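User: Can you model how 4-(N,N-dimethylamino)cinnamoyl-COA sits in this protein?
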Amino acid sequence: MTDVIIEKKGHTALMTLNRPSSLNALCEEFMSSVSGALDEVLNDSDIYTLIITGSGKAFISGADIKEMYGKNSREIFDWSSLGSGLNMKIETMEIPVIAAINGYAFGGGLELAMACDIRIASENAVMGLPETGLGVICGAGGTQRLPRLIGESAARELIFTASSIDAGRALSLGLVSHVVPGERLLEKAFSIAGEIEKNGQLAVRAAKKAVNAARNTKIEDGCLLERRLFSALFDTEDQKTGMGAFIAGKKNVVFKNR
Ligand code: DAK
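Assistant: Here's the modeled complex, given as structure tokens:
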């Protein structure tokens, strides 16, 4: 059985994590498969948006506790580079990535979802960072990304209490941007992907780069980067197409992404 399934629909790639026996827990072998699948997507210039979801009742139940259990600090440090590398790869991918959280997203699973650009959830999704309850802390960016996404107070509470939240609470905290019935989750994800894909892809990618920079740049530097990216787009055909269509009163712009 393939543990990561990639399907292409138009310009969208759907990546389904498929290790149901452990609810998609991230073991070393599985992380390598996910990383390889991400490379496959990265190397396909025809893909404009990636959706990541899980099969069965979990998005990802977390890092594989059984695999981590016996390791010492040196071994886990080596092991962990794969997990953190995975999230950095997702976060820095040129194209937008949508996490369609279909069920449990705990620990490393929520950390992976937080590395995505957009998160949507099914009504039955449950999320949390249970690590302190396991005697450890997040190891793949959870303590860094959660406060940035939902603010320090709520993030500290979730991390220190190791408590789980349902999809409605995640929505109210701004951790996910939509909650839909399970059977409509992928439809919603594809609909968001479609909205993104009708725009100029050079602009979308520049926008992702600029928004990413906002996380760790001084406002002056971020605004300078934004201005540089904005200016560079004026040397593209897309800018003439998009603005030209507005001036001519045309709707349904078709960008050539060049
Ligand atoms: N690891 C290993 N196996 C897991 C697992 C996990 N995280 N989650 C579930 N499983 C396995 C179960 O052991 C069970 O296996 P069998 O007994 O059938 O062999 C099977 O999946 C089905 O699970 P359950 O029988 O427990 O299913 P339930 O529906 O009853 O419960 C559950 C679902 C998700 C509520 C429960 O399985 C659960 O609480 N799972 C653990 C959730 C958790 O604590 N996750 C956080 C793990 S710590 C790092 C990267 C990341 C991390 C750390 C470092 N580096 C890059 C540095 C992150 C740490 C974590 O994620």
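A couple of observations from the model: The mean pLDDT is 96. Strands lie at 4-9, 12-17, 49-54, 58-60, 97-101, 104-106, 118-122, 126-128, 164-166, 178-180.
User: Helpful, thanks.
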